[in-house]
Design brief:
47% helix, globular, eight-stranded mixed beta sheet, six-stranded mixed beta sheet, 687 residues, alpha+beta
Length: 687
């Protein structure tokens, strides 16, 4: 299949190949990154194996990588797809796919109309892609590879007996859209887009509304979609059974899997951040087909999202499509137009038909096991969200540090406070500046970050504020430099993976590859990634190891957002530690030049403000000034004593807009945490 072939081939041909990093450089940088994660004895054992590897088998494997690079557009691509995705036997729903939840439309939209607008937008985007009319991706003017776009539409992952594979369907077979509603699947046939967009949407909307109004709920015990959330070995066996039950099943499954994409008309109506994230992540599994290239999710209350299958496309690629979807929908919603009889008469008719499946006892048994696995896995997981609105990118930049690296260090401190050890941490870095590039691992842990966490938590009294701040700043610099090297194709983890894959069948496997430090340093207890697009209200995925966390985050101008998923490892608690860490880091970087007695004076000023407010509120229902109010000050405005203290100024700013009891509660809670907990590390006995 050739999709947007000119754009894709031009993009790939014009870009440099992904380089093969220098062996000695990779080993040296791996040594620095792995050392803080293990004991001295464990690390020294691994170091001896590393040195032996470089002296013996390493150069041979390195030469093979160079030879492979000469023969392939990207020496890593096929190996990475195998290792990360096709050989992975975990559930794609819980451990591979990513999800987006989009911001609300400017005006409410009915479910059928919203879904119709999204379908129309996606179909038009596909036409642009296939007609080679999309502008090439670029970051700050630097072109990015668009090879992944050929897998965006009309693809589906299939479970195999030992490895999965992805099928790309020809255009002539993939013009239809799959629709899921109440556990059932439909094929929606949409005519080619016309110049009358409103009429096109009206035609699609009418068919979707019929589906919503007339579809009876299918019992979950007959859900085909929930099978795709099972472990891959179980889904393979179930799919083979499904195909063998009847020829109708094979035809229905082919129609479903060959669709351009899937739209889920959900019956649930998520409201809170947590509900919205969980609904986009997995819902109850019935109105999904997690193997599809992407699923557009439309909820009963007019919220909407996206679920992407990760094997051949990355979230950053799908974000371009998502931006078009959101922009188009918001434009349509703002006009608040209602379909008329004329629109329905003018537009070419859309049609739909339901896909039917036959069942036998064996297939029903597979579905029952899949439902049990799904429910048990959801119950075993904890998804928590944090909306941190005390500050964001703008204030972080004023501290003269990288916002992304600042957040990465907040995660390090939060994790260390919760578990008292340094976690192997993965941050996704893009290599799309190279032909067929995908991602590389930016390792967040360094000797400086480990020392900083210990200084903040284990023995805060032995390190002064200035020394802690310097450790933090150096940790941030290290993280930024590591990420920059990854973007230049000089990461270490994909190189190490390539060296391992370069082993030939029957060849002796060096002891390094099975060393506990070598393998353990790649057990990502923190799997993290940032996408900070303003269209997003939710974003996330699951953990990649059983005792780890999946942490998706967004950095906005004045807020930071986190989605934390784990197998009951304490996601909510980690969110609280994240909030504390962020506050502490801002305090640290903005007050590092101060002496402990100066900080204590400001804390005392806050305490005096709190005391004054309590006294005033006990005698009056509204705060009033203890002294005469200056003419320049509005009546009823509370003027703080100790006004020379900057903290006091900040604490009382805007108090006139709050009832006095809310002021007391807010200040009292913050003062307790700020002094008794957060500032305990900031006032060491020695400096």
């Amino acid at each position: 299949m050739t999709v947007n072939s000119s754009s894709n081939s031009t993009s790939v041909a014009s870009l440099a190949k992904l380089p093969v990093p220098d062996l000695h450089d990779t080993v040296a940088r791996f040594t620095e990154a792995a050392r803080p994660l293990f004991s001295t004895d464990e690390f020294e054992t691994c170091l001896a194996k590393l040195n032996d590897f470089v002296a013996t088998q390493g150069p041979t494997l390195q030469a093979r990588l160079h030879q492979r690079s000469a023969e392939h557009a990207n020496w890593l691509e096929d190996w990475w797809n195998e290792y990360a995705y096709f050989l992975n036997r975990s559930s794609v729903c819980f451990n591979v796919n990513y999800f987006f939840g989009f911001r609300d439309t400017p005006q409410p939209m009915a479910q059928a109309r919203l879904a119709a607008a999204l379908i129309d937008s996606a179909v038009r985007f596909r036409s642009q892609l296939e007609s080679d009319s999309l502008e090439l991706d670029n970051i700050r003017g630097k072109p990015m590879c668009m090879h992944q776009y050929q897998y965006m539409f009309a693809t589906c992952r299939h479970p195999g007996e030992q490895r999965d594979w992805t099928e790309v369907y020809p255009r002539r077979e993939s013009t239809h859209i799959a629709v899921a509603h109440k556990g059932r699947y439909f094929v929606l046939r949409v005519p080619a887009a016309s110049t009358n967009r409103h009429a096109d949407i009206a035609q699609i909307e009418r068919q979707l509304q019929i589906i919503i109004d007339t579809t009876a709920q299918l019992e979950r015990a007959k859900s085909i979609g929930v099978l795709t959330a099972a472990l891959r070995d179980d889904w393979y066996a179930a799919r083979e059974c499904l195909l063998q039950v009847s020829s109708d099943n094979a035809a229905s499954l082919r129609a479903l899997e060959s669709s351009a994409f899937l739209v889920s008309l959900e019956s649930v109506a998520p409201v809170t951040h947590k509900e919205f994230s969980l609904a986009c992540h997995c819902s109850d599994g019935t109105d999904r087909y997690f193997d599809k290239n992407f699923q557009i999710l439309v909820f009963a209350n007019g919220r909407y999202g996206f679920n992407g299958e990760h094997s051949l496309t990355d979230a950053t690629t799908d974000m371009r499509l998502c931006n078009v979807l959101v922009h188009d929908v918001e434009t349509i919603a703002a006009k608040a137009l209602v379909a008329t009889a004329g629109d329905l008469a003018e537009g070419a008719p859309a049609t739909f038909e339901e896909l039917h499946f036959d069942y036998n006892d064996e297939l029903l048994g597979h579905i029952q096991r899949a439902v049990e696995y799904f429910d048990a896995t959801v119950a075993a997981h904890e998804l928590s969200t944090l909306v941190f609105d005390s500050f964001g990118k703008e204030q972080i930049k004023k501290m003269k540090v990288s916002p992304d690296a600042f957040v990465q260090m907040a995660m390090q401190l939060a994790y260390y406070r919760q578990f008292r050890h340094v976690p192997a941490t993965y941050e996704s870095a893009s290599t799309k500046a190279f032909a067929r590039g995908r991602t590389e691992t930016s390792r967040s842990v360094s000797a400086h970050s480990a020392a900083w966490c210990k200084a903040m938590v284990d023995h805060p009294e032995t390190t002064g504020l200035h020394a802690k701040a310097e450790l933090l700043r150096q940790s941030i610099v290290n993280q930024s430099q590591f990420t920059a090297q990854c973007a230049k194709g000089s990461g270490i983890d994909r190189h190490l993976l390539g060296l391992e894959f370069a082993l030939q069948e029957g060849e002796e496997r060096h002891a390094l590859f099975d060393d506990q430090v070598f393998t353990g340093s790649r057990r990502w207890k923190l799997s993290t990634s940032q996408i900070s697009d303003p269209i997003l209200a939710a974003y996330g995925w699951g953990e990649v190891v059983d005792d780890g966390f999946g942490v998706a985050y967004r950095i906005e101008n004045n807020a930071l957002h986190f989605n934390v998923v784990s197998q009951r490892m304490g996601s909510a608690r980690l969110c609280q530690y994240l909030a504390d860490a962020l506050m502490d880091m801002r305090f640290l970087l903005t007050n590092a030049h101060k002496q402990p007695h100066e900080i204590m004076a400001e804390v005392d000023a806050v305490a005096n403000v709190l005391t004054s407010i309590k006294l005033l509120s006990s005698s009056s229902s509204q705060p009033t000034t203890p002294t005469e109010t200056p003419a320049s000050q509005p009546e009823g405005r509370f003027r703080a004593p100790f006004a020379e203290a900057p903290v006091a100024h900040a604490m009382v700013d805007g108090l006139d807009r709050l009832p006095s009891n809310e002021v007391i509660c807010a200040l009292e809670a913050r003062l307790s945490r700020f002094v008794k907990e957060s500032l305990s590390w900031a006032l060491p006995s020695t400096s």
